Amino acid sequence: MNSKTIAEQFSEYASSLHYEDLPDEVVHRAKCLIIDTLGCALGGYASDPVRIARELAANVTSKEPASLLCSGEKTSLDLAVFVNGVMIRYLDFNDGYTGKEAGHPSDSIAALISTGEVMHADGRALITATVVAYEIFCRMCDTLNIKPMGFDHVTLGAMASVTGAARLLGLTPEQITQAVNLTVAANVALYQTRIGNVSMWKGCAYANASRNAIFAAQLAKRGMTGPSPVFEGRAGYFTAVSRQPFELAPFGGGNQPFKIMECLIKKYPLGQYSQSVVEAALLVRERIRSVRDIVEVHIHTLETAVSMMAGDPEKWRPSNRESADHSMPYAAAVALMHGRVDRTHFEDPYLHDPELLELVSRIRCSVSEEANRREPEAMLCDLDLTLADGRCEAVRVEYHRGHPRNPMSNDEVEGKFRRLADGALTKRQSDMLLSQLWKLDELADVGDLFALARID
Question: MmgE/PrpD C-terminal domain location, by residue (predicted)?
């Protein structure tokens, strides 16, 4: 049993991990995920939530200005983190991790690149802080599932963002502990964000958690203390959120694997639980002449996936992008009808296409006990198709493309980035930014990335 508090364990890890401790494959994986994350930001730049966030950030100036991705506008550090985080998350295309809890650790990269810019950190510092944030997020996901208590995974994301950013801010171990105390005490988010009629806030919630985390780290740097022990205390996290004490597994390093190696990269712009479903639908589509021949589609997958992505009426008739990209039946219908799924399919005219919605009505989703048993090792989907001539087709997908057991190649990661950047950056700009990101460990100042990612 560890004698240190959870907050102290976070601090100790953030303070003690060094770039030189990272194996080559971990450094490479961090580069891949940062490339993927910045590509998602470029793809999300023109969205309404980003416009709203940018307008708000434009009202604020700072003596320590931080840049907004793509536009290059300046604002305060915490608001830059918020805007950049919304940009990253909007398309629901950035990475994922599944343990007992699930979420998107790359959302924390918004806090890290902005802090790195303000502190003139180098690329190696950014890579190390990224690995720290991934360790915190993923180890917490492995420890407990907070959804049944009504809490959202961004509650864990705030912990990851504050720990990684506090390291970049140069906080002492005691200050990092206090930054964690302040963050955990003040940031408990509701799971309602991701169920029912999903709103714009779905893509903003982690960005807001990171914004609050940055504020806490800035306070701690100036001497502010937070409630302690924030996890173990009589009215702390164990009592209010997890409802039970827990211990963390050892963090990555030494003989322990790094969690960043277990994160997925999405091939499709939709919730991570539907990646296998869409891949199965695309595979089975190759065996049929027309979607009009389909009598019924039956999807068997994880209970969590069915509950989150097919458990509300809104998921069967989504009225907005946020509900559609979190709808398993809608995503499957798009794949079956169009033979591809891209970011345009979650907007009109597809969103209200009567033929597409009629196909949605022929889909059933049910829980697979085998899929439940194999979670999180696999993201199993069995898809059965019944055709008008009585024929049945069945497809199984265990490890979708981008899953850590079926990873994308460097070329695939780069191709995804280029598709997302198309229309925002010129080919020459994309070439220059990608070249620098692949050589991130040689970068002298993280701020140079903002100049390279600026839309002319």
Answer: 268-438
CATH 1.10.4100.10 fits 6-265+432-452, yes or no: yes
Alpha carbon of residue 387 to chain centroid: 37
Confidence of residue 1 (pLDDT cuts 50, 70, 90): low
Determine if the pTM surpasses 0.70: yes
Nearest to 176 by CA among 16, 10, 4, 19: 10
**What distances in angstroms separate CA 291 from CA 88, 277, 285, 386, one per listed residue?**
34, 17, 8, 11
Fold observed for domain 272-397: 60s Ribosomal Protein L30; Chain: A; (3.30.1330)
Structure tokens at 375: 């979670």
Separation CA 150–CA 274 (nearest Å): 22
Strand, coil or helix: what is 120?
coil
The answer to whether the CB of 40 falls within 8 A of the CB of 70 is no
